[in-house]
From TrEMBL:
Signal peptide start-end: none
Keywords: ATP-binding, Nucleotide-binding, Transport
Domain ABC transporter: 9-232
Protein's UniProt name: ABC transporter ATP-binding protein
Species of the source: Dyella soli
One annotated GO molecular function: ATP hydrolysis activity
InterPro entries: AAA+_ATPase, ABC_transporter-like_ATP-bd, ABC_transporter-like_CS, ABC_transporter_ATP-binding, P-loop_NTPase
PANTHER family per the UniProt record, alphabetical: ABC TRANSPORTER ATP-BINDING PROTEIN
One Pfam family here: ABC_tran
SMART domains named among the record's database cross-references: AAA
Amino acid sequence: MNTTVAPIAQLSSVVKRYGNLTAVDQLDLMLHRGELLALLGPNGAGKSTAIGLLLGLNRADEGKVELFGRDPQDIMARRRIGVMLQEAALPATLKVGELIRVTASYYPAPRSLQESAELAGVADLLQRPYGKLSGGQKRRVQFALALCGRPELLFLDEPTVGMDIEARQKLWAAIRHLISEGCSVVLTTHYLEEAEALADRVCVIARGKVISEGTVDDLRARVSLKRVRCVTRLPIEQLMHWPDVVEARMDAGRAWMSTANAEALVRRLLHADEQLSELEVQRAGLAEAFTELTRDAAQANDTEREAA
Ligand SMILES: Nc1ncnc2c1ncn2[C@@H]1O[C@H](COP(=O)(O)OP(=O)(O)OP(=O)(O)O)[C@@H](O)[C@H]1O
């Protein structure tokens, strides 16, 4: 990926307010050609607002927003993007094939109906009225509409909500295919394994600000937590109160703990349960990194407020 060329989408020191609420607060965001940027953050963090700004659906109160070096409302920029938002109001009576055909007609060099349908996994739904589809099928049709114009940049706002595991994995494969063709993607998701599976770069947003940014490995390395798993007779209710245990739960018959001091925890576990087996220690995943980063940001925010 060449990051020396101009970014294809950019927010520079952008502020967006809704009344007294600052949804996006001095946000800087940059997207380069051919990369998949995942925006992560708790509910209400400002991810959809940031996407709305890049799409020209919201106007910034301060700062600069650019899409292909232009104003996001410029038709020349808009023709180069595909969009799948969280909610889509599409005519219920139109058949899936008709919807894709109409949408594709707005673009200068669209994919064929067959190619769009196959990429999105909706080839068997083309004759069905959109309104009669299941939630997961509707999401796949919305994905077909997002990609049918052969966009250079795709915005996917929580694309796999409501999809079963097989449909989700097919959509991930389709996204990888689009990226291999040179398409860039901005993705928001609450499924951290989705970001882990797809993202070149992850940007964690909380309260309208970027609190951490880097590759999935960078973010993992930034937190000190490790995962400890084992089969033990020690009750989980007891383990969750041990010193150094940040989180503890049962998962598929095993105790699962996260800790910043794996050595001390392992010593204590072996001492307390001589029958303990299947012990595993692993680096934290993106899920633990995300929990720790957003918790730290919330604590820093509280400390700032108390000091003010
Ligand atoms: N049109 C609006 N009017 C008023 N407040 C809004 C509007 N849109 C968003 N907000 C508020 O702005 C903040 C950021 O919302 P946003 O939808 O961008 O968050 P998000 O990170 O996408 O959340 P989620 O993960 O729940 O989708 C929230 O507090 C939300 O209530």
